[in-house]
Design goal:
- The chain is an alpha/beta fold.
- About 35% of the residues lie in helices and about 20% in strands.
- The strands form 4 sheets. Strands 14, 18, 19, 20, 21, 23, 24, 25, 26 and 27 form a 10-stranded mixed beta sheet that branches. Strands 10, 11, 12, 13, 15, 16, 17 and 22 form an 8-stranded mixed beta sheet that branches. The protein has a 6-stranded mixed beta sheet with strand order 2-4-3-7-8-9, sandwiched between helices.
- Strand 19, helix 15 and strand 20 form a beta-alpha-beta unit.
- It starts with 12 loop residues before the first helix and ends in an 18-residue tail after the last helix.
């Protein structure tokens, strides 16, 4: 196995992620998509880059500062990685704004949506409207800040949009100036609708353009020499010393505040910014040239997601998909009766997330339910599940909730929920020392007529009713006793120090999961070497674990056919002679975010199917509490295998990893078009429209068998 660990056999994790963001950008550039859907994808590329800089680039910069020179899987030091990242992100930024300026603006104008590019484009009537709006709605909110010997350079907040200016006294010279800045208020809408010259048109102008046009009103008795927008991204990677923290909740609250003054990782400026102004920003923010991005257009393209929400342009969007009822469930019986009948697999967002919400809601009200235990990683802003857990505690039930405070960028939200649940009488756990609890599990203990029974929900995605409409995920509802026993063991492990001697069905990280996956991969290798059919299909978000990749290389060498469906990062290389010739990697980027994890092993005809919360990444396998669970009910298993089959046939949204690290769309010439996400939407709608008996609802066609 050692010879399969050569650096030339791996792609760099960060550059692979950037390739993923290029795939998202390719959707924004795809003119076959409705125009407003393309806006959404361009917005996503911008928000993706923000997080990438705040966490991944920040982490690499920390390593460079610490003189950490250890090479990654691909043989690159942190300094080399940063150099390659800067080259790639500058290229990406140019492509983003080329798409915006050359493709979007003309197409939007043709569709009667005019985005004012510069305030000089305004007519006299529009100019007056904008000036009046400024004085009435914007001016009272602004806080202009000048910098001189008595006023130090102010704190510029992370991801805030600002306007920098050079000002001087009316009699001042070109060399006699001061720096001033004003933050564009995030409490106001980013763009403002203004009267149009043509009644058919909708015209909008960006907030920073209105402020820039009227900036002289903020510095009375001064002459504004120039004014340009700028934006910074700071290091937002929290460093929490858990072992030394007396109170994890307080420690995280303290660290959250530090995000606002972390090191500046990126400075975005208007391309035409005055050189003197840029020099001041560069000095005061301590930014290198490689970290400065000169932008030909509006900074922070995430505003396009709000533009996508404008009314009156429905013809330029996809029809909104409504998640369908789960055909195996009915409203006549309570959910526990139906779970006792058979396991149920849920496929979101094609099927509604309501059964998961109802599972907790019914448990909270049911007098026979004794206890509810649940892990929460990311929940929605107005979560019905949180409300049900609080109600259950108030109804006298034993409620234990693990709220993961270390869920990145949801820390603040989770602190609020944790405090609320504690007030309602729930037992709240803040996770395990040194680990993130990323598993998705709910346990309901109920007194049935024939004794105590444990009902369990296990999922691949968060208990978030909002993202469940946008992310593709899978869940399993079961009352199998072996899984119920394992679920109890999981919560005992989380709340105390009880480490189970063995597991019946569940595969749990960080201690047991990687070894089990390696064992399952090795079994396929042994079968292939023995001349038996062997197959692995794995669907996940990211693949970058060296041991798993090496095991896949060995399996490929042994003759195992391996198909990987990986949305984002993939450090495995395809097409290496004698190493990965039997491996294909595809990435599906579509209207929904692919988020489910499914693992299929042929097992000499006794097909094994697992689902879970973990990707094949060191952080998931070594540093998180994760759960992978088997799908054993034949109907459920066939339903999950059908998902894999359709995704492997997708020739509309699938991109195939090439030996050079690039991704190419599938060649669909002469083939029937198959878009997996559209297929599942139509399938769910058709099934919801059919009124069958309960028995008929368990018939599944076609059954998927590996060739």
């Amino acid at each position: 196995m050692a010879e399969l660990n050569k650096p030339e056999y791996f792609w760099n994790r960060e550059l692979s992620w950037l390739e993923f963001n290029y795939r998202v950008l390719s959707e924004a550039r795809d003119k076959s998509l409705p125009l407003f859907e393309r806006l959404k994808f361009l917005s996503i590329t911008a928000s993706n880059l923000d997080e990438f800089f705040m966490i991944r680039v920040a982490s690499l910069k920390d390593m460079v500062h610490a003189r950490y020179n250890k090479k990654d899987l691909a043989g690159m030091t942190p300094a080399v990685q940063l150099e390659r990242i800067y080259d790639k992100t500058h290229e990406m930024c140019s492509m983003q704004y080329s798409t915006y300026n050359r493709s979007f603006l003309p197409a939007l104008k043709q569709s009667h949506l005019i985005i004012i590019n510069t305030y000089e484009e305004l007519s006299a009537a529009q100019s007056k409207y904008v000036d009046d709006y400024f004085m009435r709605d914007i001016y009272p909110v602004l806080t202009p800040m000048a910098v001189d010997s008595s006023r130090p350079f102010p704190l510029i907040r992370n991801k805030s949009l600002n306007i920098g200016a050079l000002i001087c006294s009316p009699e001042g010279t070109q060399e006699d100036y001061d720096f001033a800045t004003v933050q564009v208020p995030s409490v106001l809408p980013r763009f403002v609708r203004i009267p149009s010259e043509d009644k058919e048109d909708t015209t909008i102008i960006l907030l920073e353009q209105i402020i820039e046009k009227n900036i002289d009103k903020l510095f009375l008795n001064y002459k504004v020499m120039c004014a340009h927008p700028y934006r910074i991204t700071r290091n937002a990677d929290l460093s929490i010393e858990e072992e030394e923290a007396a109170d994890l909740l307080k420690e995280i609250q303290k660290q959250l505040k530090k995000r606002q003054w972390g090191e500046v990782i990126r400075l975005e400026v208007e391309e035409a910014m005055d050189k003197r102004l840029l020099k001041i920003l560069k000095r005061e923010l301590d930014v290198e040239d490689s970290c400065i991005y000169k932008i030909s257009g509006p900074l922070d393209l995430t505003f396009l997601m709000k533009v996508n929400g404008l009314e009156g342009f429905e013809h330029l969007k996809y029809e909104k998909y409504i998640p369908q009822p789960v055909k195996e469930l009915n409203h006549e019986e309570d959910i526990f009766t139906q779970i006792r009948r058979h396991d149920i697999v849920l496929h979101h967002p094609y099927e509604t997330f309501d059964p998961v919400v109802d599972f907790v809601r019914q448990a909270a009200k049911d007098p026979n339910v004794l206890a509810i235990k649940q892990t929460l990683y990311r929940v929605s802003g107005n979560s019905p599940i949180i409300a049900s857990l609080a109600a259950a505690a108030e109804n006298g039930k034993q409620v234990s909730v693990l709220v993961e405070l270390k869920a990145r960028f949801d820390e603040e939200n989770n602190i609020i929920w944790a405090k609320m649940l504690e007030k309602a009488g729930c037992h709240v756990i803040y996770g395990l020392l040194g680990l993130k609890t990323h598993s998705k599990i709910t346990l309901v203990v109920r007194r049935d007529e024939d004794g105590i029974r444990r009902y369990v929900h296990l999922g691949t995605g968060n208990y978030n009713d909002a993202t469940a409409k946008l992310y593709t995920d899978l869940g399993l509802l079961t009352c199998q006793d072996p899984i119920g026993q394992d679920a109890t063991a999981v919560f005992n492990m989380l709340s105390g120090y009880s480490e189970p001697l063995h597991w019946n069905k569940l595969l749990v990280a960080p201690l047991w999961l990687r070894d089990k996956f390696l064992e399952l991969i090795e079994r396929e290798s042994e079968n292939a070497l023995a001349g038996k059919p062997a197959r692995i299909i794995a669907k996940m978000n990211s693949l970058c674990d060296a041991k798993i990749i090496s095991a896949l290389y060995e399996a490929s060498n042994a003759g195992v056919k391996i198909d990987l469906i990986i949305r984002g990062i993939c450090c495995l290389k395809t097409g290496i002679p004698g190493v990965s010739e039997n491996i294909t990697v595809r990435s599906i980027v579509g209207n929904f975010l692919e988020h489910a994890r499914i693992f299929y092993f042929y097992n000499n005809g006794f097909e094994d199917v697992y689902m879970g919360s973990a990707d094949w990444m060191p952080r998931n396998l070594d540093k998180r509490v994760e759960i992978t669970f088997p799908v054993e009910d034949e109907y459920c298993k066939n339903k999950v295998m059908e998902i894999l089959r359709i995704q492997l046939e997708d020739n509309v949204k699938a991109h195939i990893l090439q030996p050079d690290g690039s991704y190419e769309k599938v060649d669909k010439r002469g083939k029937a078009l198959i878009c997996a996400q559209d297929y599942f939407c139509e399938q769910a709608k058709m099934e919801a429209a059919v009124e069958d008996s309960l028995e008929d609802k368990r018939v599944f066609e076609p059954l998927y068998h590996v060739e």
